[in-house]
Amino acid sequence: MVNDHDATHVAVASGNCGAPKTWDKNTVPAGGSRVVIPASRTVPVQGQHDKARVNWLRVDGTLRFDPKVNTSLKVVTLVGNFKSTIEIGTEKDRVEAGVAARLILGDRGARDAAMRKRDPTTWAAACWRTVSCRG
Asked: Phi, psi (5° rounding) for residue 6?
């Protein structure tokens, strides 16, 4: 569905998704980015990342939303592979009252007829492992 060689950003260290040092290009993924979180990495969302949409995000490791602060992440396509974890709060560490944790599946925007014929979906989410949402 989404290939490593098409990625614009790959997590090279576990760390905040808003920190440049987390990513191979030493820049934070922006609108249109194609992002991979490898199996050995944990990337927490610790801020608001909903102004521009990431084209796709593939999680082979762990994507974790901080349950103590307002967080958001906007993606068009989200893929959680085998042995991956997408965590928005846990049984022991729930999203706190008065805090919003938002995973936004945004559309791709305007597309012409040829684009719709090649790929009729406007957004997608596919997860083959653990997705945890607790608030």
From this structure: -95, -5
Give residue limits of the domains in the chain.
4-133
Residue 127 confidence class, pLDDT cut points 50, 70, 90 = low
Report the 3 state secondary structure along 28-47: CCCCCCEEEECCCCEEEECC
User: What residue type is assigned to position 96 of the chain?
Assistant: E
Classify residue 69 by its DSSP letter. S
Q: Which two tokens stand for residue 21?
A: 């040092």
Cβ atoms 62, 87 nearer than 8 A: yes
CB of 126 closer than 8 Å to CB of 79: yes
The span from the CA of 57 to the CA of 14, in Å, is 16
Cα angle for residues 35, 40, 43 (degrees, 5° grid): 50
